[in-house]
Amino acid sequence: MGSSEATLEFCNRLWDNWAPRDGDNQCEDCPAHWSNRSDFPGDRDTRQSSHGHRPWYGDGDLDDVEIVILGHEPGRGSIGDEGDNETNHTKNSFEDVRNPKISEVPDNAGSLSLTKPLFERIDSELSAYWTQAKKCNELVQNNSSAERQCAGIGDNHEGYLADELSAVNPGYVVGLGADVYRIFSDVFDIDSLGGEFNRPIATGNSESGLRVLDVDGYSFKYIPTAHPSRGVRPETKEEIDLSGLSGKNDSERYYKLFADDLVSQIQSGEI
């Protein structure tokens, strides 16, 4: 597992790439960068504020991380008032904005709130870190370009994701949804689930059917799971039994079952 120094060095480097208007780094020409976005107020040539947006990564634990929870990307996000310094995160540091309590990450976060049983159980038992494959809020246009650039999809994998996971060096990466699995598979050489996603993620030998995939050349393993905004698909529910579990809906019951299996199997050394 990685040291907090290596993880913090990566986190601060990414923030230092993101905060300036101009620079020679991985954020400079990204269409999702605050200075380049067409969906923000004002002229892009003179814009000075991030309008409440920031890259979302580095929440939770930074030292001896056992699990990384990996999301796809932040949603569209709201736009803060121009000139309001509290919403201009370019004036803040990485440490100013990160949340060290991973169980608080899903609070008031749209569909991510459905994963609360997963975040809470992991936070109570294991050292965990939260990040996203694409760090900045999604775009209506050029989103796939920004996604590829940020994650490092391409021949050289020069985006952030491989560097980040190398620095954090977890034992396991839990990916939320098919888009995360797709991106991860484009950056890393991992075992295949086959031709679909929703059924095979629940065909392992446990109550939740969680699957553990090897990642070639890395010490951590990848564990795909359902995406909260799309709900637990019928193909997944055909493989596992969610009846009799407490929770308001299928998603909450599924993530609780998944989290219980995950923690139990890690602590017992089964995976």
Helices and strands in order:
Blueprint (H helix, E strand, L loop, with lengths): L3 H15 L38 E4 L6 E5 L22 H4 L18 H10 L2 E5 L10 H9 L9 H8 L3 E5 L1 H10 L25 E2 L6 E5 L8 H4 L12 H19 L3
Parallel strand pairs: 2-3, 2-4, 4-6
Antiparallel strand pairs: 1-3, 5-6
Q: How would you describe this protein?
A:
α3 runs parallel beside α8 (250-268). This protein is an alpha/beta fold. Strands 1-3-2-4-6-5 form a six-stranded mixed β-sheet, covered by helices on one side. β5 and β6 (221-225) form a beta hairpin. The model has no long low-confidence stretch (mean pLDDT 91). It is globular. It is 29% helix and 10% strand. It has helices spanning 4-18, 94-97, 116-125, 143-151, 161-168, 178-187, 234-237, 250-268; strands at 57-60, 67-71, 128-132, 172-176, 213-214, 221-225.
Task: Give descriptors for this structure.
271 residues, 6 strands
Helices, by number, come to 8
State the end-to-end CA separation.
16 Å
Q: Calculate the mean pLDDT score and round it.
A: 91
Main beta-sheet strand count, sense and barrel state:
6 strands, mixed
- What's the number of extended β-strand segments? 6
Radius of gyration: 18 Å
Beta-strand percent range? 5-15%
Q: Which secondary-structure class do the elements indicate?
A: alpha/beta
Spatial arrangement of strands, main beta sheet:
1-3-2-4-6-5
Poorly predicted parts: none
